[in-house]
Amino acid sequence: MSECECVFCDIIAGRVPASFVYRDDRVAAFMDLRQAVPGHVLIVPLRHIPDLYALDEATAGHLMAIAVRVAKALAADQRPAGLNLWQSNGEAGGQEVPHVHLHVQPRRVGDGILHLYRHGLPAPSDRPSLDALAERIAARL
To answer: For this structure, is 101 an active site residue?
Structure first.
């Protein structure tokens, strides 16, 4: 996907309107057009980066630092009962815009979003399986 086909690149360039809460020379934070809950903010790098796999660690760290600042501002403004921070990656992960971004959502009890375990909390995995998976992942770091 080229930058000219990316709605977040269009927002950053000023071709599409957005309600910004923050912007610096590397990232921007703006209100999600579809407010799942009041205060839903998106944080995006200014440079087009399609997904988490293409994200460098310095930009990732800066995205997270700004997410923490936005979360604290939301906490001060709205006094939510909780907060979600997430990144959806790839089609199976629910990524709708192919430009890496973080969602920051203040949460209220019973707000009805993010029912993570539709079939109930999963049973604990056995330790040998967890150890084997951890070993495979660690070997690739």
So the answer is: yes
